[in-house]
Amino acid sequence: MVDGLTSLLKLLSSNDFWQNGGAATLAYIIITTLAVLAIIVPLLLAVAYMTYAERKVLGAMQRRMGPNVVGPMGLLQPFADGLKLLLKETILPSKANKFLFYFAPIITFSLSLAAWAVIPFQKDLVLANINLGVLYLFAISSLSVYGIIIAGWASNSSYAFLGALRSAAQMVSYEVSIGFVLCSILLATGSLNLSKVVESQQHIWFVFPFFPMFIIFIISALAETNRAPFDLPEAEAELVSGYNVEYSAMTFALFYLAEYANMILLSAMTSILFLGGWLPPFDVAPFNWLPGVLWFFLKTASILFFFIWVRAAFPRYRYDQLMRIGWKVFLPISLAWLVGTAFVMFYFDLLP
């Protein structure tokens, strides 16, 4: 460690480093690091207060008060919960695989943050404006299942392993439908760049011509994030929390943070793909007075409220019902809609 810092200081103090473009490289690294922090820090705060908002909304719908003790109106409750988990001891189950047990929450949490690199908050306000943004998001969401599978296997628990298998089957089943939905959007925009997807909705949001795809996407998002009424991998009555049953303290907190970060991510994706992203509902005053980033946050918050409302309003599905909806309802409809979209756009010469 000391040798590494010494070498770094020598490199920075040498004239060759600054004469060979070192200053530009260093500036690029610093700016990129600050940009990453500018996304991650507000995201973690949003996750913390998402848990607070969920408990408040659930409390209101069940005629309870929700958190109201820690701080004014309970606003410091997320920090009290985080501090409690930080100070607890992480317990390693007997005969568990130590490396994989600790690795699983780290990879799950890291993937939930990595996906935000391509999310455009406003025009030209995106960390990496790559042309394969939709494909990148799809790849990242597909990889997240590995963290859950590893957690279930490494815990050496039947409950955890069964929960991981359920989660993997559930996520893989609904990703097929999500893939067809994304392909339909790709046909309409002619680009996998998320900024261009938003700009293609300047005249009409895709929620109107693709309304069945919107419904399929948002219900599949509930299944992808293991949220009620599809929270079967964590079913308390059967699996006592499922794949994370053996986790405690900060390892459990990482799974918890990843789940809510993914929920916010899929809400942001819904906003970008179907609700015009940062575009106002009408391009006239006073709607276009508000900055685009505010419209983006308002739309994302509306989808998040829907996630919470569904949890409070609907009972949990049975597992066979969940699979039947994914394979026998959503898959044929999304595939037929994709073929129909391709036919209409080709026949009427609407291809971009």
Q: How many helices in DSSP terms?
A: 13
Using the alpha-carbon principal axes, give the shape: globular
Ends distance: 54 Å
Radius of gyration, in angstroms, nearest whole number:
22 Å
Q: Structural class given helices, strands, pairing?
A: mainly alpha
Q: How would you characterize the largest beta sheet?
A: none
The stretches of 5 or more residues where confidence is low (pLDDT under 50) are none
Topology as a string of helices (H) and strands (E):
HHHHHHHHHHHHH
Structure description:
This protein has about 350 residues and is mostly helical. The protein is about 70% helix and about 0% strand. The protein is built from 13 helices and no strands. Helix 5 runs parallel beside helix 11 (about 250-275), helix 6 packs antiparallel against helix 7 (about 160-190) and helix 9 (about 210-225) runs antiparallel to helix 13 (about 320-345).
